[in-house]
């Protein structure tokens, strides 16, 4: 684990086993938070998972966040969509919520990857001019 110089966010190498273990831990913690929300009456099945995917994408990279998103779908289907703790055929509304989660997960993971790369560029000192650009005319 290393620290990004500018923001102090701990970072994990994207394809390491630590990144995937962190992804599993984030899904577990999000499931616990989602369980509390469901016990309080919330019907937003993926509410606790979306912010954690974004943070996981920044800290551990896109592969770990994609792993967590793929792990989230069957977990939510099994544990949080009624009837609880059973795999039953999905209703149209439940299938739509899973599709919407997948769309948001792809967008958030992409945004997190861009943020991660931007932090890496800034911690290296920013972009360096490469001499003459193609836009300048040397005549």
TrEMBL record:
The chain crosses the membrane at residues 20-41, 53-78, 98-115. Keywords: Membrane, Transmembrane, Transmembrane helix. The keyword Transmembrane helix applies. It comes from the Bacteria. The keyword Transmembrane applies. This is DUF4118 domain-containing protein. It comes from Bradyrhizobium arachidis. The lineage of its organism: Bacteria, Pseudomonadati, Pseudomonadota, Alphaproteobacteria, Hyphomicrobiales.
């Amino acid at each position: 684990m290393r620290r990004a110089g500018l923001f102090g966010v701990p970072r994990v190498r994207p394809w390491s086993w630590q990144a995937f273990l962190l992804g599993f831990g984030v899904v577990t913690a999000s499931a616990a938070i989602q369980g509390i929300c469901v016990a309080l009456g919330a019907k937003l099945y993926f509410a606790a998972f979306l912010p954690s995917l974004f943070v996981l994408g920044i800290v551990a990279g896109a592969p770990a966040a994609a792993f967590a998103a793929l792990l989230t779908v069957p977990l939510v289907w099994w544990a949080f969509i009624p009837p609880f703790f059973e795999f039953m055929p999905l209703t149209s509304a439940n299938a739509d919520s899973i599709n919407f989660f997948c769309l948001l997960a792809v967008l958030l993971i992409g945004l997190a990857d861009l943020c991660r790369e931007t932090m890496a560029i800034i911690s290296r000192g920013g972009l360096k001019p490469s001499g003459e650009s193609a836009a300048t005319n040397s005549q």
